[in-house]
Amino acid sequence: MSAAALHPAEAPSRAPLHTISLFVNNKPGVLVRVALVFSRRGFNIESLVVSAGAEGRFSRMTIVCSGASTELSQIILQLAKLVDVVHAIDHTGDSSYETEIALVKLFAPLDERTQILQVAEHFKAKVVDYGSDSLILQVHGPSDKLDAFVDLLRPFKLSELVRSGKLLMARGSRVT
Amino acid sequence: MPQKIPSGGEKLVQCLEREGVQYVFGLSGGAAMPMFDALVDSKIKLILTRHEQGATHMADGYARSTGRPGVVLVTSGPGATNTVTGLLTAQMDSAPIIVICGQTNAVNLGKDAFQEADVTGITYPVVKHSYLIKNGADIPRVVREAFHIATTGRPGPVLIDVPKDIGQGPCPAPFTDSLDLPGYTVPGRGDEEQISRAARFLRESRRPVLYVGHGAVISDAGKAITALAEKLRAPVVNTLLGKGAVDETHPLHLGMLGMHGTAYANKAVADCDLIMSIGARWDDRITGRVSDFCTRAVKIHVDIDAAEFGKIIKPDVAIHGDARLVIEDLVPQVEIADTKEWLAQIARWRKQYPLHYPKQGGLRAQHVLDRLNELTRGESILTTDVGQHQMWAAQFCLARSNRHWITSGGAGTMGFGFPSAIGAQFGNPKKKVWAIVGDGGFQMTCSELATAAIHKLDVKCLIINNNYLGMIRQWQEMFYDNRLSGADLEGNPDFVKLAQAYGVKGLRIRRPADVDRILAEAHAHDGPCVVVAEVVKEDNVFPMIPAGASIAEMLIEKPKHRLEKPTGST
Questions:
Q1: Measured by CB atoms within 10 angstroms of the end CB, which terminus of chain B is less buried, N or C?
Q2: For residues B240 and B387, is the Cβ–Cβ distance under 8 A?
């Protein structure tokens, strides 16, 4: 994960983003094997969510990565080839339901809070911690909405940003 | 009397017996002692090597020559890390080997215990799959899965890391045949629609080439491919590792293609209107500059590994499946094709650009290998090391049948030749096995002379000795103004005396007139024998396609002018 998420203005021109879902054995070492496929071909993992699937013996991984689009199908095939990967699916540009949660901490004096709360209200963000010096806002939605929210808060004293990474589920009978 | 509960090590060895393992190649050590101890009472024969790398190449040679998996047993830490080169070699060339490593006690994992190394971590990129056993009850399932994974689909190495306390502790778990591999499927027959599409293209082709790789050897597709070639009247070329799938003396066979392939094979590939890869992966040694490769030809790709489709070359037809099954399904769908003009053109190339070497000016490696080919006539198993001798052997020693040619292609591992011959000899006691090596590579694993000597193995080692790392010297001569750097092997031992020091017969060839007599003497000798051919120091392998160049830029002989440095790597 890069600092680019925190300071997009400083980020170099980015390779295109891709979203991949993996259905894998819930075993030690699986994450390393998966990560090696990306690093060996020079892909950067921008976000990664791993959690147990509906059956405990399998895990779900949702990976957002950046790298050349021409290489993506190779990455998918290499992932699918891993013994521990049951399936690997490229969801880039499909109509799957996507969401992400972000927590944002701001050191905000009282006189700036009205503006901040206006932004928060517009994005349906919740104040989950209201301290005398600081606020924590929680927002969820598509990743680009979160990007916009964070950008609007940058002029204030944004001190910490934690994002869950993209969560994704294919609609209807399509498989995630 | 209640039955004694076996230890983890005993259970593991029993599982190996159940898999039909004959030999374990290995080197002992503290953390592996429970498994070595179990071997004392086993019918499996332990072949003690002198270095773990040697053990991996022996297992590899055993596996490639028999089609059965080769098994390695080593200890933790440095014992295990010494297998990494052998794992890479097996991974790159799809050889089924099982490497079992001792490991520190499970409770000490990650605590820098004596001879601890994160072996699963170190080896992730060079294995097909790996296991770190944390529970003794998993041993039977893990061993069964390891053998299944190593030997099916696209074969490859599997590593099993066994902590000492697991090996030492009781293991009451029953044997099992069940596999827990939901993410692993073995492809079989190809998709019918793709096969008929391929057949349509083949029917329309007037200048086809069948390009045969290691996958054809592994799946034993040679007979089917020969039938296809004969029906289509299509020429066959093979990769370095594909040698033997189709008899190289067949009239339709043009030998090896690629960087040091025959000129007529490469000219055929450059000029074809259809190229069909059967278990080959469009390696950079084959394609040269990819953007110039067969730009006008239809490309058909048969592979058991879907990740090979489009990796280098985007195929017009991709058939995912076992090479033999796919070709067997394809043969009835093609028709006898009119390739008369094409074969006539190829015959002209064959006549115009034959493989040749100077008959004067000292002893030539090509001459020695040409005569070895004459002596062995495809009946002996040949293994090679890596370098000039390997390319000359590939050119002059024609493989007539499957699993008679064993070489490190993908990884290009020096030190592979001699131990792989030892492994092949164990697997084929009735065959003669010749290792063809250079003076450089031989010295990387020559301590295995002891292994050959102890077992009185009928293995012959032909050292093509030019006192150089010859391929390096050739490149530096051709592309680096002959500025030799790290190429001169001054300080080589007397290899005849070295062999004798191990109790191995040593012979020397100095003059062309002695070649036949000495090769025959070695061949007839019952037991290990080293033959040192003291060849001319400065000789070059041709034809040659400089790395990264297109096939059209092939050099038939040494150019008069200075060449640009190659753009391709190595």
A1: N
A2: no
